[in-house]
Each structure stands twice: as C-alpha cells, then as structure tokens.
Amino acid sequence: MSLEPAPFTADDYRARMARAAQSAADAGLDGVLVAPGPDMVHLTGYRPTAATERLTLLVVAADRDPVLVVPALEAADAEHAAGAPALTLLDWTDGTDPYGITAPLLGVGRRFAVSDNTWALHLLGLQRARPDSMYTALTEALPMLRAVKDPAELARLEAAGAAADAVYEEILKVRFAGRRESDVAGDLAALLLESGHSQVDFTVVGSGPNGANPHHEAGERVIAPHDMVVLDFGGLKHGYGSDTSRTVHVGEPDADEQRVHDVVREAQQAGCEAVRPGAACQDVDRAARAVITDAGYGEQFIHRTGHGIGVTTHEPPYMIEGEERPLVPGMCFSVEPGIYLPGRFGVRIEDIVTVTANGGRRLNTTSRELAVVE
Ligand code: ZN
Ligand code: ZN
Ligand code: ZN
Question: How much distance in Å is there from the Cα of 204 to the middle of ligand 2?
Fold first, then answer.
C-alpha cells in the first residue's frame, strides 16, 4: 500500500502542456500563463518553495514550445523539475525587467488565460509590458483543465482515498467522550501522516451543536455522551488529495438523530447514483438535494453537493446548481450532502467519486452507517 507510485515523466508533462494549449485554442485563446501553484505543479512538476515578488511564469502557447521564465537564482532548482526536459528555461537576473523579458513570448494582441493565483503584482507588470494582450482568469476560461484525471493520477487519488479510509477505521477505536475536539483532530492528523499523507489539509471534528456549522474545524469543546460528531478530514498523499466525511455518535443515537442521518445517507447514495458520463454536474447536486428536500430539510442543506479534487483538495468541477457542464470519465469529485440543525447537531457524509463509463465509482468505501463510538 505504501509503495511509491512511478514518478510522472517529462512525456506526461509534455502531454499535459499540449492539452492545455489545445484547450486554450478550443476556448478561442492563444495560450495559458501559469504562476507557481497547483496549475504549475500539474503542468510541469515544478514546485518552487514559494511564490514570491520575483516573477516565475510558465508560458504555454499553441505556436511555440513552452517556456518557463524563472529568476536566475532559482534556475538550478527549476532544471530539476520532472517536466524540465519538456520546457525551455528563460532566466532573468535581479536588476533586469522580467516583464520586458517575458513580453516577446506573448506576441502582439493576443489572449491568455492566467492562473487564478498569479500575484496582481505580476499580472500588472505583464499588462504594463504588453498592454495589447488580453488576460482572463484560468478557471473562468478553462475550468476543466485539470478536471479529467489520467490513469496515473487516478491511481494516486485511489491510494489517497484508501489511506483516508484506513484513518476512519482507526479513529472509530479512539475515545471521544470526555476529550476535546482538538484532541480527536490531533489523532486524525497523526493518522493521516501515518497512512502516508505528506500534508494534512483539514481535520474537522464538529461535536454536538458545533457540527451544525459546516466550516467549524475543531475547538476546545469537550465531546459529551450522546453527541453527534461530524468528522471531515483529508490532505495530500503522493501529491494528490483525499477528503472524506463520516458522522459518528457517542453511544446509541436516538430516533431523530438516526432519522436525520438516514436522510443524508440516502441523499449521498442518490448523488452517487446520478454520476454517469454526460450527466450535468448540477444533476448530482439535484439528486442529492431532492432527497433532503423531500424529507423536509431542504433549508438545512446549506452548501453545494461537491467539488473536484486532484493536486488540490478543492477545485473544479463543482457539483452545484447552474453548473451545466457534463461529467466526463476520469473526473474525480466529492459527493457530500449534509443537514445542519443550528443549536443541535449536523450530519455530513462524503466520498470521493470518479466517473467511469458505467457510472460513478467511490474511492472511499468505508461504511456509511451511523457508527457508534465511545
Ligand atoms: Zn445523541
Ligand atoms: Zn470534506
Ligand atoms: Zn469535500
């Protein structure tokens, strides 16, 4: 289980950059401009220690080989990126104008999608150097650029999902009653790292009324007998994300708690069953939401049903009303309906699901029944 997956090759990155150039062309754009962050990791494997005031920028255009503009003092690091053989490196030294150096790469009067996390400092510098270019946000222009996973990416997401499942099986064995939420969150973080995650992104422990706040992480509240407890945890393993939720109960649940949990479980099942190629993203949301609305809790399901996952734990595609783009085999995203009863408790159940030719396949397979913990 903990075997290292084969690393991505320069050819993998070459193919991804070619796909990005093609996607841009299909959208009527001339290319994509990518700053350090998840898009750069996906397209080049290059992960500078931090985005900084020094310009680092990947230029992918249909009519030229990809170029990575990089500060000279970081060029040696960039050369070691797995995708470097598929790139031309263009370095610039302190005291020169990196935007002026980049401008000729952009051509004249052309249109580029710019990665969302590009610093304003850098985009404004490019606009100054190349005022005839038009720039648009990457996830607005090309929201599905990273959405369809190739088999090697899928294998990593499966491994991350299996590791998160192992964490859930272990957390059921720890004591909840009498301990603080933050203590259980610490257990979750330790288990995620033990299971091979390199990074913990979130460890939600929402006990009792805290569970009714979907954004509650974990606090000092001491978990009590009879509490419902929302658990939602994940991070990155081999560079790809996990994200799963289960709701547990301290001791035997009462009939009302069991009923609310049953509704969410049926909604989550309905959402997963709506996954098939060609269905719209919003169909997954509608299927899950209909179950909750029919049960009378529509007003208490206060978020979208799901989000994509890959080199980040939140990315397109979004399972939300109004998202009409179709599901495509290889997409991976969460199906995570919930019911939130202010002052009382919350319930959320979440699996990562991938689209196959035959429908949805869960990457989280632990029991979705309401588990009783001590
Ligand atoms: Zn209870
Ligand atoms: Zn989650
Ligand atoms: Zn999620």
Answer: 8
Task: Report how far residue 178's alpha carbon sits from residue 79's, in angstroms, rounded to the nearest whole number.
Answer: 53
pTM for the whole structure: 0.93
Sequence-distant (6+) residues with CB within 8 A of 315 are 38, 146, 147, 307, 308, 309
Q: Which residues line ion ligand 2, judged by CB < 5 Å?
A: 232, 243, 245, 350
296 C-alpha to ligand 1 centroid (Å): 20
Distance 342 CA to ligand 1 centre (A): 15
Question: For residue 3, is pLDDT > 70?
Answer: no
Structure tokens, 205: 């422990």
- Please write the tens of the pLDDT for every residue from 233-290: 999 999 999 999 999 999 999 999 999 999 999 999 999 999 999 999 999 999 999 9
* 349 CA to centre of ligand 2 in angstroms: 9
| Yes or no: domain 10-141 corresponds to CATH 3.20.20.70 | no
CA separation for the pair 110, 90 (Å, rounded): 21
SS3 63: coil
The architecture of the domain spanning 151-373 is Alpha-Beta Complex (3.90)
Alpha helices per DSSP H over 213-322: 255-273, 281-294
